[in-house]
Amino acid sequence: MRCENGKLSAMSQISANIRLRPTRIGFLVRPTDLASVRKIMRYCACLWGGIYNPLIPVFRKPPKEWRLEPFERLSGSDIAKGYIKFFDAALPFHAVTNFRP
Length: 101
Hints:
The protein has helices spanning 34-46, 76-87, and strands at 2-4, 7-9, 25-29, 55-57, 91-94. It has 101 residues and is α/β, with parallel strands linked by helices. The strands form two sheets. A three-stranded parallel β-sheet has the order 4-3-5, sandwiched between helices. It has a two-stranded antiparallel ribbon with strand order 1-2.
């Protein structure tokens, strides 16, 4: 209650909580390109929340060890898209040339 000009009036109260989280950047990189992997890790060390930025492997044909079923046909692009969706990467950054998920 608040007093205005000698009269009591009800006052509304509003509260809000705001949570900030760093933008998650998904780095698309070839697993065999160790120089790029190291470079991306250095970038992530300097970014806010960089520890949560996923390094997403990019390849044309997945390794045979990754196949769930003997006849399953997943492309490297399908796997990269799955990683981007799973990690909720707001900004997929292409560290690989000539790749479009």
